[in-house]
Specification:
By secondary structure, this protein is an all-alpha fold. The chain is 76% helix and 0% strand. α8 runs antiparallel to α10. 24% of the residues are buried.
Amino acid sequence: MSYTTLAIALIFIAIPLLLSRTLRLGLEKDTIIATIRSILQLLAVGYILKFVFDSDNVAYIMIMVTLMIGAATQNVRKKGKTINGITWKVAVTLLAVELLTQSILLGFGIVPPTAQYVISISGMIIGNSMVLSILFLNRFTAEVDAHRDETELILSLGGTPKQAIHRQLIQSIKASMIPTIESQKTIGLVQLPGMMSGQIIAGADPIQAVQFQLLIIFLLLTTAAVTSILLGFLSYRSLFNQRMQLLQEKQ
C-alpha cells in the first residue's frame, strides 16, 4: 500500500465526521485527534520497529517490551484508583503473563527467538492483558461497592477477608474472562481475526495463517485466565486493613 492509497482511505474518517456533524454528536474534535494520534504513533512505531528488527538486538527487544508494559500499566491504573498499590500489582501481572507465555513459546521452540516474533506477539499479549485488567477492575470495584454491606456482615460474624470478598472476586474474574471465551467460540465463522487476515492479504498460505492464528488464540486464553486471577488475588487484600476491616471507598 502506498501513501497515496492510504490518503484515499481517509474517506473512512470523513464518513463518521460527517455523521457526527449531521446528528450533532459533538465527536468531531475527538475523531480528528484520534486520527492524528493514530497516524503519528503508528508511523513512529513503524520506524522504530524497522530499526529494532534490522538490529535484532536482545537489549532493544527488552526495552520495547518494557515500554509496552509501562504504557499498559499507566492506562490500567486509572481504573483501579480505589485499590492501594494498584500500579505495581498491574505491572507484576503484566510482567508475569509476558514471562509465562514467552517462556513457553521460546522454551519449546514454538517460535524463533527473533525480534520480529517476540515483539509482535508480546504486543498482542500485553495489549490483551491490559484490556482484561481494565475489565476486571471495573467489574471488581463495582461488585465490592454494591455488596459492601454483605462483606461487612461476613466480617462481623468472624469471616476472613478472603471469605468476605470471595463471591465478588470470583464473579469479577469470570466476567472479565467471558468476552475472550465467547469470541473464540465464533472465530472463523463470524469474523476472520486480524493476524490471520493480515497474513492472507500479504500472500501467506491460508493454512499456515490459520496455524499462527490458533497459536494466538491459545495464548489469549491463557492470558485471560492468568491476568484475571493473578490481578484479582493481588488486589483484594488491599481492600482491608490490618484489623481485617473493609476500607472505606475513596472519593
